[in-house]
Amino acid sequence: MANERDIGDHYDHRQEPRDGSKGAGRGTDVRQRWSAVAGRLAAALRSMALISRTDGVALMLAAETSELRAVGGSTAEGLELEYAQQAEQVGPAQESVAADHPVAVGDLERRDGPGYARLARRAAPVRAVLSVPVHLDGGVIGALNFYRVTPCTWTRDQIAVGEHLADTAADLLVRLAAHSASDDHGWP
C-alpha cells in the first residue's frame, strides 16, 4: 500500500485535494486506484533507468497554469530533483519544454544561469540531468528527466535513447489514464 514514506511508488500525496475529499466522495477507491497508477508509473520509470543506464528517471508534466509539476521518480533523489525544479521554476526540464528539444546538463553545480546554484543545492546528490520533452497529440506535455549522481557528458546515443523513452512515457500515460478512467480492473 502506498504512503508518504514509501519510496517505492513515489506517489505525490501533496497534490491531493486539500479538503480531504480525495475525489469528490469516492474516497478510498479513488485513492487506491491512483496508488495503483502511481505504482505502475514508478515501475516504468525504474525500468527506464535500467534501459538508459542512468541512476534514475523522473517525470514532470505541465499543469493547467503551464508550470511543470513533479509526477514521479524511480528514486527518492529523482523525485527531489523534480520538486526542486518545480519550486525554483528553473532547470533542464523547464528549458527542454520551452525549447521543445532535449537539454543536457553535465553538472548542475557548474551550470551558469539564474537559479541553477539553488537548484544544484536542492537537487543534491543529483549532478547531471538530461531532460527530454514528452509529446502528446502534437504538443509538449512535460519532460522526462534522466539523471546521474556524478557529472557526465551526455552522448548522442543517450539522447536518442531518452527521446525513444519519452515517446514510451507518452504512450504509457495514455494507457494509465484510460485504465484509471475505466471501471474494469484490466488494461484497456
Automatic annotation (TrEMBL):
Entry superkingdom: Bacteria
Domain GAF: 41-170
Family matches, as Pfam families: GAF (PF01590)
UniProt-annotated stretches for the region Disordered: 1-30
Signal peptide: none
Biased composition (Basic and acidic residues): 1-21
InterPro entries: GAF (IPR003018), GAF-like_dom_sf (IPR029016)
Name of protein: GAF domain-containing protein
Organism of derivation: Actinomadura graeca
